[in-house]
Amino acid sequence: MAGIEDDQFRKIFENNVLANHWLINFVAPQMIERKDGAIIIISSIGGLRGSPVIGAYNVSKAADFQLARNLAVEYGPHNVRVNCIAPGLIQTDFAKALWDDPEMLKRSTATAALRRIGQPDEIAGTAVYLASPAGSFVTGQAIVVDGGVTI
């Protein structure tokens, strides 16, 4: 982060935090009006850890956690819940460089308790829970879905 240009940092922050803020402001008024809603922000376990390589990304993901907490306080009286999902390594195109090569995948999953990469459906299941009546008493939280990497 010490050498990152302001424009680079700004772009990361705009993509990972400000865009969430804009989208939430677009949908929240309707949720407030009907007194029901669930907003789910996709963050990352990077927001819980430091990194010598992707520090600016991690800062932006930590900001997502706080965005969820603040909005949970603001929207809670209207029965609108706001939470984050913090995935670990998931087999998506975004993370392809970390799983496409078998040796890189082995290194990337070596510290995970489950010793494997996550699948998109495993994140989707958490989102379904948070959006459903089963998650109706959960707000302002970051739910880590990382196969045990952060333990």
Describe the protein in words:
This protein is mainly alpha-helical and 151 residues long. The protein has a single domain (6-145), classed as NAD(P)-binding Rossmann-like Domain (Rossmann fold). It is built from five helices and three strands. Strands 1-2-3 form a three-stranded parallel sheet, sandwiched between helices. α1 (6-34) packs parallel to α2.
Largest sheet: 3 strands, parallel
Portion of residues within helices: 40-55%
Architecture per CATH nomenclature, i.e. the level-2 architecture? 3-Layer(aba) Sandwich
* Helix-strand category: mainly alpha
> What integer is the average pLDDT?
95
Taken together, the total number of domains comes to 1
Quaternary structure type: single chain
Number of helices: 5
Q: Which superfamily, in CATH terms, is the homologous superfamily?
A: NAD(P)-binding Rossmann-like Domain
Q: Any idea of the CATH topology? A: Rossmann fold
- Show unreliable segments: none
Q: Kindly, what is the distance between the CA atoms of the first and last residues, rounded to a whole number of angstroms? A: 25 Å
Annotation, overall tally of beta strands: 3
Order of helices and strands: HEHEHHHE
